[in-house]
Description:
38% of the residues lie in helices and 17% in strands. By secondary structure, the protein is an alpha/beta fold.
Amino acid sequence: MAILxxxxxxxxxxxxxxxxxxxxxxxxxxDNLMTGFRAAVHPKARFYEVDIRDKKGMDALFEKExxxxxxxxxxxxxxxxxxxxxxxxxxxxxxxxxxxLESMTEHGVDKIVFSSTAATYGEPERIPxxxxxxxxxxxxxxxTKLAMEKLMGWVSQAKGLHYVALRYxxxxxxxxxxxxGEAHDPETxxxxxxxxxxxxxxxxxxxxxxxxxxxxGTCVRDYIHVCDLAQAHILALxxxxxxxxxxVFNLGNGVGxxxxxxxxxxxxxxxxxxxxxxxxxxxxxxxxxxxxSEKAKTVLGWEPKYxxxxxxxxxxxxxxxxxPHGFEG
Length: 329
Ligand code: UDP
């Protein structure tokens, strides 16, 4: 029996496929290559270029492969774009998942672990954030992910689907082998953008807002290594296979770093001065997002290995230095 990874050519999906294959699992990958890269797919995974909204294509796959569980990363994930193109996000994220669940239920596949996000909380009521805290997304991306979570709940009641939603905080870093890493086009995330400076692709980094109510005025985020996220997906799938109930888990390190602290650590890791300039706030950015991941630790037995920002940024630097153009050269 195989594990089906949807969006397995994307950043977190590709790292999860590497971890699954390292753990000796049989893996099938589906990706429409809209934002993912064929070169990111592990050579031992069976790859299908299919869009999850293509019901016939997904039906054919479920008929051909024997799938015991699904890990679902196939979604659009840029907050800024989601505010400009909300319909694209409802179509790809929500409609894509509706079509997928139709196909899964018709083929008797009843276990799914899927990417959710800290963006489901919106402006947090308190720090660290617990899974039971208020969810009021401030952007379309978070809204579609929350709708996906609710959709799973209703389908579970009606059709016996078993699901785990994993709410990620700030995914970062790269596979320690250097084989795969983060590559987005356009890049919008802080750590890869900072690393473009020592890589000679950008003169300076912009700090989006220095007047937040935080210790140095810049936004605080919880940075979690992509391989730790990948491990959590495997644990969550095993939990469902062992009969675990539907659940939602935060995934973060539980430690917040300001934008200025991230820049300082990157200076230390790369030995580059990395000039920075203050820019206006970015719309929709909460001042602080820090997870409580106690539930994932207690229930799933998850223990992040990369708990220092230096190590996380070193793995990212290792990848970006060797692949300044990502998977395209
Ligand atoms: N950020 C920044 N400059 C940049 C990119 C991001 O100051 O060029 C800030 C952003 O405002 C946020 C933090 O860095 O406070 C992390 O942003 P990112 O886009 O990496 O992740 P997000 O928290 O939006 O998921």
